[in-house]
């Protein structure tokens, strides 16, 4: 059977470009406009996308609200994503529903229950994009004075995921007999308390919802640092990442697949789906004109603010037409994205402002501008040469950018036999060709790994 490309539709409210909300065809209030989300979701489902993907941050970015009111660096004011997924589940039937939730600013029991609920409501279409939070300002919304260090966030994430998996396995699949004649609602021999106590969490369990249709919602992970790749290799089923070149994409792909094998998994147990920011036109000139229209809507202050956020340093005191400084410290936020942008600036000789304008468009993701044939040529190259198992499509603006991709790019992908013409399954796991996880009793490997890490840390301290 010919391997097919997986495709996600990344639904940032007005589109992925920083100035998307200013586009004449964009829905400016998209973040709180459910009709907008429903129409875009239904369009993606009609086009047979594997999944919808919702990003999120548990806090508004920025400090200078006077400036941001006019020149917003990030789209502000949008629905909480799990709430939105529940609503979208009711107006779609087949497409997968993936939302971002942070392990740094949530608790395992609450999150396990929410995602299991969405998996039941949707008939097995839920997915969790696990992040550790790259927005340092989130800390202030949860009673903290600072964002936890990068490595600590990933230690917490490892234990968080292990506890969540254990909670999802609280019940055997056939535990709830609901026999009215005998009065037996569930079989007590088929329910298990987790009884977990680790470095960060103490959770007894069991979860108060049956095992979900997919066993577990699909596990998506979006970190590409060393810690992120370690977590991805051990546990992730889909990896959302960013690479600029084929060589970098291949290196990341092979690295994560090898880590999965080292963890006792099959390479096919994890799907690598980098982001792609496509600007498509019927001609090259038309595509370039569409891109320039968006770029002309970016205020330089916005470009600079986004770049400062991504790099984790102030830049306004430097000449904007000059190069980046060479002594940039490692950020405590998204470390892999910082490295990617530094390499991009050096490879292409970009000034600070030029890099800022580039980031404001694709925000560090792979930017492809051209005709349908040109865009598919590049996607196919990565797909067939161990650079990707599919892509998370990040439309420049909505709904028009997604419509362009559906009407112009998908027919070319299908002509080459690279993308489905219809769904064959009903769950997100079936769309992606992922196995339904077997139920573990009480503890998963990840919990044992977290316990070993805690023991080693305690021993070292002693």
TrEMBL record:
NCBIfam families: FMN_nitrolo
Keywords: Flavoprotein, FMN, Monooxygenase, Oxidoreductase
Keyword flag Cytoplasm: no
Flavoprotein as UniProt keyword: yes
Entry's Gene Ontology molecular function annotations: monooxygenase activity
Entry superkingdom: Bacteria
Family, similarity comment: Belongs to the NtaA/SnaA/DszA monooxygenase family.
UniProt name for this protein: FMN-dependent oxidoreductase (Nitrilotriacetate monooxygenase family)
Stored PANTHER family: ALKANESULFONATE MONOOXYGENASE-RELATED, C2H2 FINGER DOMAIN TRANSCRIPTION FACTOR (EUROFUNG)-RELATED
Region (Disordered): 437-462
Alphabetized Pfam families for the sequence: Bac_luciferase (PF00296)
Luciferase-like domain ranges (all copies): 20-383
């Amino acid at each position: 059977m010919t391997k097919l490309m997986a495709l996600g539709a990344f639904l940032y409210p007005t589109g992925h470009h920083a100035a998307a909300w200013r586009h004449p065809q964009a829905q400016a209030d998209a973040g709180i406009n459910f009709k907008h989300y429903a129409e875009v979701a239904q369009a993606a489902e009609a086009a047979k996308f594997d999944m919808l993907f919702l990003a999120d941050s548990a806090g508004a970015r920025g400090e200078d609200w006077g400036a941001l009111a006019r020149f917003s660096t990030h789209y502000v004011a949008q629905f909480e994503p799990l709430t939105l997924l529940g609503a979208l589940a009711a107006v779609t039937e087949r497409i997968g529903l993936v939302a971002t939730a942070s392990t740094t600013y949530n608790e395992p029991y609450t999150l396990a229950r929410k995602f299991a609920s969405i998996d039941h409501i949707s008939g097995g279409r839920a997915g969790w994009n696990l992040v550790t939070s790259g927005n340092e300002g989130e800390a202030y919304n949860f009673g903290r004075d600072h964002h936890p260090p990068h490595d600590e966030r990933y230690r917490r994430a490892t234990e968080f995921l292990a506890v969540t998996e254990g909670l999802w396995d609280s019940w055997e699949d056939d535990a709830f007999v609901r026999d009215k004649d005998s009065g037996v609602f569930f079989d007590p021999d088929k329910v298990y308390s987790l009884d977990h106590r680790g470095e960060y969490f103490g959770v007894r369990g069991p979860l108060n919802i049956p095992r979900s249709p997919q066993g577990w919602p699909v596990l998506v992970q979006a970190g590409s640092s060393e810690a992120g790749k370690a977590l991805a290799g051990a546990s992730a089923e889909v990896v959302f990442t960013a690479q600029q070149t084929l060589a970098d994409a291949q290196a990341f792909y092979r690295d994560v697949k090898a880590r999965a094998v080292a963890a006792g998994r099959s390479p096919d147990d994890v799907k690598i789906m980098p982001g792609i920011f496509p600007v498509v036109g019927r001609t090259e000139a038309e595509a370039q004109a569409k891109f320039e229209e968006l770029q002309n809507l970016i205020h330089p202050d916005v470009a600079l603010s986004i770049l400062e956020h991504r790099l984790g340093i102030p830049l306004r005191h430097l000449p904007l037409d000059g190069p980046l400084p060479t002594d940039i410290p490692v950020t405590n936020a998204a470390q892999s994205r910082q490295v990617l942008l530094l390499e991009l600036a050096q490879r292409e000789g970009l000034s600070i402002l030029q890099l800022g304008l580039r980031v404001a468009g694709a925000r560090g993701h792979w930017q492809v501008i051209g005709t349908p044939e040109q865009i598919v040529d590049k996607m196919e190259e990565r797909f067939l040469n161990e650079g990707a198992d599919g892509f998370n499509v990040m439309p420049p603006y909505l709904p028009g950018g997604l419509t362009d991709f559906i009407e112009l790019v998908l027919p070319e992908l299908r002509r080459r036999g690279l993308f489905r013409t219809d769904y064959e399954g009903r769950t997100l796991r079936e769309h992606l060709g992922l196995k339904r996880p077997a139920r573990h009793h009480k503890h998963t490997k990840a919990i044992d790994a977290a316990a070993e890490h805690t023991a080693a840390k305690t021993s070292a301290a002693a």
